[in-house]
Amino acid sequence: MLIGELARRTAVSTRLLRYYEEQGLLYPQRDSLGYRSYADDAPERVGRIRAMLAAGLSTEDIRGLLPCEMDHGAWIQSCDKSVQIVESRYSDLDNKIAELERQRALLTVQRASIRDAMPADQ
User: What is the pTM of this model?
Assistant: First the structure.
């Protein structure tokens, strides 16, 4: 299938599909005229890429996971590389959540201080 058809079937722009190719996530063949031709499973692969991006994985992470990839339904198989990448992202997410909670606590104090300082008639 050509890039336009893949874009229609996945609701992903052709520009983004080209970006996925540049990042080593999609591997189209080229016909004699130089047009990209994607395999029948490309829509499923694009769907997996989108799901992994939505889960917070980077394109670099996804590229690292591709050797562990599973067919039909699952994101990836368990292999040393996949465990390492997913655990690292999970840890990063825990750290971000902790930082957001710290910021919220500080902002809560400031918010209370501002509210306490407001005149009663406002």
Answer: 0.76
